[in-house]
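Support reply, case 0932

Customer input (verbatim):
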Amino acid sequence: MRNIKIVFAMSFLFSVNAFSQMGQMGQMGNNRMTPNNQQPIPNNPERDKEEMEKARKENLEKLMSRLTVDLNLDALQQVAIKQIYDDNMKKQGIIMKKEITEESKIALLKSLNESTEIKIIELFNKEQKEKYEQLKKDKLENASSSKKKKKKKD
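Our regenerated output:
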């Protein structure tokens, strides 16, 4: 049970990062300004789509760089894991666009992230699995300590 919570939390943290950037882009809307803040840029769905795709790819590259260094991934593992995460992120986007309750979205995202986690862990050797578990544990500890600090500020 504890492992499931850890898996969900790690997957959720990866997902939140991607979705937070997508949300920031969505908030720009019609009030977006040019870099020198002279004139508003009209809302362009194609451009927004391109920006979201670019942000998704950047997030994926950052994640892969981090995992490659931390887990000492070989080239084959890098390709396979990148593909799995890329598919996961695309499916997350589809789920988020569905017109269903938030609880349903959370359940679908949880299920998706659990299956993604299983696929990825299968690609690791024993040492990488241990390091990966430690990374997840550290990430959870950092997230919980950040929440505590934030509550103290409020």
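We compared this against your earlier run and they match. Two observations from our side: The helical segments are 2-28, 45-71, 75-97, 102-121, 126-153. The CA atoms of residues 140 and 146 lie 10 Å apart. Please reopen the case if you see a mismatch on your end.
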